Amino acid sequence: MLSETASREIIKIVGQENVLTTPEERYCYAYDATDLTAVPDLVVFPGSAEEIAQIVRLANEHRFPVVPRGAGTGRAGGSVPVQGGVVLVLTRMNRILEIDLEDMVALVEPGVITGHLKKVVEGQDLYYPPDPGSADYCTIGGNVATGAGGAVAVQYGVTRDYVLGLTVVLPTGEIIDCGSRTFKGVVGYDLTRLFLGSEGTLGVIVKILLRLVPRPASRQTLAAGFADLDAATKAVGRILQAGLTPTALEFMDRGTLDCVREMLPFPVPDTVQALLLIALDGHPKDVAGRASRMARLCKEQGARPIKRAQDAQEAERLWQARRAISPATFKVKPAKIAEDVAVPLSAIPHLVSGVQEISRRRGLPIICFGHAGDGNIHVNIMYDRAVKSESDAAQQAVVDLFKLVRTLRGTLSGEHGVGLAKAPYIGMELSEAAIALQKRLKRAFDPNNIMNPGKIFPPDDF
Questions:
Q1: What is the pTM of this model?
Q2: 149 with 156: CB under 8 angstroms?
Q3: Which residues lie across from 444 on neighbouring strands?
């Protein structure tokens, strides 16, 4: 419980106007995009690294938890303050501090909206590739803290591939810089990579130095419908082996298509059981040639129909439909457990067919979509939490899914992180020795366990 003394000190640091104290206000920061909820003792909007450092030093003195938070779009409960304390909402720190055209880097604060940065740099003929589905409202800081990916990862990689350096407030209050402005650098331990995906458990990220690339000259988008789910998933491997270098290769099953049907720029026949959404980047002439070969290849794999976006507006409608999938799934059931497992490419057909079997066995609709090009499939277990049998079946389906994924030599989380939701299951993937090492690292950084406690490791396991 946060003491009155500590609360008064925090208000002095950031100003009364940047603190929320009423139960109603604090409840708005008690949850993320999961069903998990815990009300913080205080919600604070810091405006600088120094303010954060003062709050963290105070937390060490008074032993209260500090939970960094971006836009609250996380799907693993990473920003849910399970032990109370202070939620540090970083949305005030939302400046693009620098875009250097010659060095091809951007320096940003953690509260910058990902989609906003993408638009700003594109206006200068540069490109920041990572594009999580929530790019229009998630923050760069949250992307870095969770290791976010997105649709174009198959060609361009994920957030960690674009982070050159960080400024971080450590759990003991010191402010450090790590990484460098250069694309190479091997001086000392790679602390930058250690903070990437650490979910606020090792410090508060306050500045991010990002690598940019030239803006692609052209992009074409195709959609290929398959009457057979197995044929669609097997086509993914053949597309990647053909050397056509797709920028994005997204998979949607029939349940997904039913959720976003009205958003698509063309009707999808009832015979289509799965859709592959494909993007290709590059020089206009090269892209046009690869798109034609891609359409031919899909046809050879049994795709019908195959649609090529006629213009940028039609392509954007397709990608808007893709980005809208997650919220649209609530048409099926009022609640869901959204998992983001990843498997080797050859295992994608086995994953999708295995999920269908889990759906039948547990009596719940399970919707699959996502980044087939890198084996990262979003598995949405749909249920009604008001029906106990469905809630129980949903939890059992999660265990079934994770067992299936590990059998296929996959990972429990491709881009959402561990947070609270996956913490009970990390022993299915990590050895006892690996977990023990990570816990020792956590203690070394955060001896008083004030930074986002209860995440990654189960609360009683630290």
A1: 0.95
A2: no
A3: none
